[in-house]
Protein 1
Amino acid sequence: MAGSTRLPRQATACNWCREHKMKCDTGQPSCRNCSARSLECITTDLRRPGRVGRRREPVGRRGKRAIEHRPLPLHESASYTVSGSSPPSPTEKVLVPMIAQETPLPSMFIAPFAGEEQPCRVSQAERPSQRSNIAVMTDKSRSRCQAIGSGCDSVYLLVQYLDLLFTNRDFWRPIFPHFQQGVAYSMEVSLPFLTSLPDLPPSAKADEYLVVFFSKIYPIYPIVERDSIYELIQKLRPMLASKSSPFTAKDYPHLVCLYCLFSASADELEGHPTDIGASYLEAAYSLYGHLVAIPYATSVQALLLLAIVLRSRSKEGASWEVLGQAIRIAQSLGLHRDMPNPMIMADGFDMAGTVDLSSRLWWTAYILEKAMVLESGRPSAIREEECDQTFPHPVRSLSLPGRCFDYFGALIRLAQIQDSIIRLSHRKQGRTTKEILHEMGRIDRSLLDLAATFPEDIRPGHDIFCPPEEFHLATFVTLSYHQSLIALHRPALTSHTSWLRSRVSHLCEGTPWRSRLRYSLCIGAASARSILKTYNDMTLYSNGSRLTTLNQLLLAIMTLSIYVTKIPSSLMNGSDLAMVLAFAESIEQQYLNLGQDAEFLRGLALLRKQLNEHVTSTSLLHKPQLAALPRDAEAPDCGIDMEFDLDRLDGAWPSLWTEGLNGFCVNDNDQDVLNSFLLGLS
């Protein structure tokens, strides 16, 4: 009939409709098919045979459709209902050790698959946001926490997902609570009370440090001018030695620049954190208040150098705070805008090449911020529509002979692509699966086009064959490139592999990126292998560099850990596991040398032990074979019960991965099945 209302199809059909492959509906107390035949309409819980199920329309991850169609009564509007007697949670084993430590739980572990019986009341003020995509990391002290966004490829989210994959395995002890204990080291910098500032190094040592800085660090972060640095050393050395010459307010930013430069160079020269580097860092950080009090271009230079040194010592949280201050001051000075006649450089070593230096300062801040947003998921302080700063002139190493590629310019272009990845992950407007996949394809194409502009001997995705003195620069860019690829293809790591491939085949048909997106999981694993191999090559064929961070290696380790878990029959699982174990042990030792929390280190050791146990045991059950995925990966059902409406899966998937795993919860058993399937947990 023209005026009849079509009843929606639900996720799980009643027993009769399922048996006869009929389209069921949500009519109560009986579906239309059973009512027409005078049959008793019975729905059995598919996951718990013998128990009565519920016929409901599939909704998004957080039940948004159900909320829209079923307003809460007035007396319920001030409270929030949480299950008190739902079936055992798949993350029950994850909850136990965290509750035992009385640690505030990340939202993803709070009743992730709760039902609706026996409600307990929570005040409206304590009600978690239905739209929040922020996870709060905290340690056992309950006084330290940091927020991470779920959209980007944070290492913490991959750790959470790995725990979810193993929630039904008795041997697996959750590693996420251990990784939480790294918060304090990342954010805090212990400073001694300084009664005097350290002297600058002797002239010969200072010259050695400057050679290191301008050959190994300057091509990536061209923040200062060489001639101006020599002038500053000549000016400030006698003032520090005399202990009586008063410093002016403008001298402190210059002094911080020198301290940071010598700290970074000392560590870079030795290839590991040094005591002298730590002493210069402490002196520079103790003058932080002077940088904020004199908010001009020299303070931006000093803050950027300070952020770089902190980041090289795995102090990402502290580096993020310092970088944010540098960006705010830079924006106040107009460094983010194209100003034909800038009047912002008013002192000392900033006069030469003012326009180009302004551009280099801004783009250095831009590169650092986009890389750290991509890692942490924190909100960006830069609004793209307000930035029109021009690109600087090509930056060459001041100490390397012959040809040297413009790595700084390449990093700017990579950072702009990283911004596209960030916006794809964080944008909260409703998008379809097709729109997300097409945007992923376009960004992936941009990354490939960027790599094609590199000379063949340093091209990302290929082995590096450049001279040893340039090897660390090519390694830094290559690691950043593959880090971006992993971030872009993260949905493949945390989604049902065959289902996602089938949707790519269907929704991206006729597009140039269809083939690559179908193998997103392989791309992520290949990028992880490239990160570890390139880093290893750098340590073998050059002197290494402190520019590369342990976070990049940890990301690769977690990516490969998920890959060997999801694809147990891969022929490369043995070699992948060997890489994970070797590099996890290596960075565990490096974190130990840095002073990272012992609980964090135990988490890495636990990961190595349990993953080795899992892969070894599964290798006996799954004989390695080339066809690890289903042969017919484009089959419409993809292994899910045919009663699921696959269009509903397309509607639920975008919010599932763009909002990550935080606040992961469902409202009924049917939704439990749907979400577990989409995440590849069932």
Protein 2
Amino acid sequence: MFVLFAGTSAALGFAIVPTEEGMHIGLGIGTLIFLILYLIYAASPTAVVFANMDARKLSREDLPILHNVVEEMSIAAGLPKVPDVYIINEWAPNAFAFGRSPEKAGIAVTAGLLDLLTRDELQGVVAHEVAHIKNQDTRFMTLMAVMLGAIVVMADLTWRLVRFQSVSSNTDRDRKQGNQAVTIALLIALLVSLLAPILAQIIYFASSRRREYLADACAAVYTRYPEGLASALEKIEAQAAEMTAVNRAAAPMFIINPLAVEGADSIFSTHPPTEKRIEILRRMAGGTFTAYEQAARSVIGRSVLHRSALMREAQMHSESARA
């Protein structure tokens, strides 16, 4: 993603000033755009996350059962602070986590989700969202989303500037000078502006899919009951409906795709196929990362967890055995 960001920045700079110096200018402009977008989010994360959504923060008195579940799973995950809890007035069942750090995080669920699930199923969903906070996925995916937004903005500016350059340079004087090298470079800049947003989205969604598997595995470990999340996913998928107020860049943050527009399994999917996630959870022989990894290999034929998670679990078992 960073390479695409740098390439789009350089293309923008070259479209402004078609020299090597222009590319340096573009990197500066790109960094500035990224910082502005990130600061907008950092200044009021809930306003950005809940834009166009009817959401409100819940106190323990509002919904003690949900607060208790969030607290239980936060303790199981070892979070330094229990996340804030929000409810979205939306009947499509869904949930997501957000926040710059585990100390400043929140979990939001829809009214439809609370109406649909049993306590065990709700615990599985909350454990999944807590895992995203614990694994710093909320921070990482926010940075990725901001970088994707910056790439889209710069690509659009580059497209407009290259079109302007092509019109303004179409004079007899420029044709006599024969700036073929500049023309070719501008065409390359144009190509970068067209391809970079597409490639950035592919990378962004691929990162999201990988993290969904890890969050599912963590949920099974925290609850010691994989069936809770499996049953919840089954119900959520059966009742899935498009949440039109959700921005596409925010879609990977939800437990299932809230837009329901792409195919179930493609490079533009924000989530792995729900039926595969359910099957993996139901094939687990115990609530461990190793059990999840073995189940994943049998269902989708490849590894889905990072080696560090498996090594950390093996080390914990070894220390426990010695004790």
Protein 3
Amino acid sequence: MELSRIIGIKCVVLAFLWTLTNGDTEVSCVFQESCILPCSFLGSTDAVISWSLLKARHVSILSYNSKQDQLTQQDEHFRGRASLFKDQISNGNASLQLTSVEFQDEGRYKCATGGNNDSFISLKVDAPVREVNIEKAENRITCSSEGIYPEPLLTWSTSRQTVFRSTTIVQQSGPNRELYNIKSSVIFPDTKHDFTDMTYSCTVSTRSNNKTAILSNRNLKEGIAKAMVAGVIMIAVILGLIPICCNKFNSKMHQSCSVPMSVLPTVETGSMELQSHQAQQVPDAAEISSQLDLVLTEKTSEELKTLIAPGHDHEGDDLLPKAAAEPTEM
């Protein structure tokens, strides 16, 4: 009795594996992207199509009948994310398109088109390895990659045999902690280890893809060369800016300290008045002397004309010596 029960269980398992291997179409979708689950039939203008996810409970995804979608039984998880190619249904295309694929979408799907022509699709969701970073600091080389699903594997390799130990840390991230971040470090006990004579490779792999990052002698030399070039350019820029800044500073100091003066004659008093002109040039000595001679000459001429003018009331005539009185006859 016990033997027959065991044989029965084995037959069920084998039947399931046969269906999965020979009857299911495996589809791999990328997390947060669109994906198509294929399904085809003979084609009809009156086609009846239904899609469902076979889990612990029957999850209705989408139904199509009478040339329109029937969404009354649609599960909320697929609302707004599932659709058919309606313009191709008459040609026998009953494929389902899912948008913004999530990890909860993984599972076994059933496409029913009437009769015994049901199709089964096994869907897997992956977040592939997109980038692998490798860097060196002192006697440590670190390799890392982020946002991967399912849990990745990280391996090291070198161009020639060497002894080293590595430490790998795997952490989960994302809103539901579904994505994996992986980081591994190789530490060399000898701090004087020559990193430039070898090539180091770090490979991060999952079931869907793998990527490799390489740290080689060329990478290190290029990094050193780039750092040296950047340093030389910075020094050249600084040296070029110093004279310009000094010239501008000296020019501002000269303008603020020098106050040009011009000498203008004052006709009313015959004296000279100094006036400040910020934007004028100082006249030379010959020009000043010429202006003074002209002013003094004009002043003297005006005074003489005033003194000898007819009808002038000579104030101060009493200051002139009077003429001697004529002698009277005795």
